[in-house]
Amino acid sequence: EALIRWNHPEKGLIMPSSFIPTAETNDSIFEIGEYVLKEVCNQTSIWNKEQSKDLIASVNLSAREFERKNLIKLIDSTLEESKLDPKNLIIEITENTFLKNTAKKLNEIKDRGIKISIDDFGTGYSSLGYLYEYPIDAIKIDKSFVRDIHIDKQKKILSNSIINLANNLNLDIVTEGIENKNELDFFTSKKCSKFQGYFFSKPLPK
Description:
The chain has helices at residues 16-23, 28-50, 71-82, 103-111, 130-133, 143-146, 153-168, 181-189, and strands spanning 6-8, 12-14, 57-60, 89-94, 115-121, 138-141, 172-175. It is α/β, with parallel strands linked by helices. It has a 5-stranded parallel beta sheet. Strand 3 (57-60), helix 3 (71-82) and strand 4 (89-94) form a beta-alpha-beta unit. The chain is globular.
């Protein structure tokens, strides 16, 4: 997953939670999103060619970015310029995106062979209906459900429900925020096989 950080000349490294909400109130989110998409596609394409790999990269798009009229055109041109196979790209959206009229765009994205994932599943305006109404490939279990799961009975119940739901709908599952072996052991025991978190690595430059 590609994550953006603002390397400020005076304040140092600034986390996205500090500047993305502000960027979403004006048009700068479009510039940031376009920059990230192009950088990720170019770098993933380079790695796959140089190392004969088949790496898949995930890029987050905000609800605001889905409003832009030229989103599909931007995705098409970026894939063409980078020579990245569409199957090597995942577009991540949050549940809040479904408050917008996104069905047409999501289907257009899916028709190109790009996968679609719901980020931070269970933390937004949840509606189980969109899991079959929209072309979703995967859900990401939010880290709030993961933290201390080995001692929190309610989190175990919620996580089990999410996993069972995803499996029954043939959706891929990614568990976010794995920070220790107890958390990893719980989710591997539930047959989850894709994870993110500091237990494996902190965010790294390319």
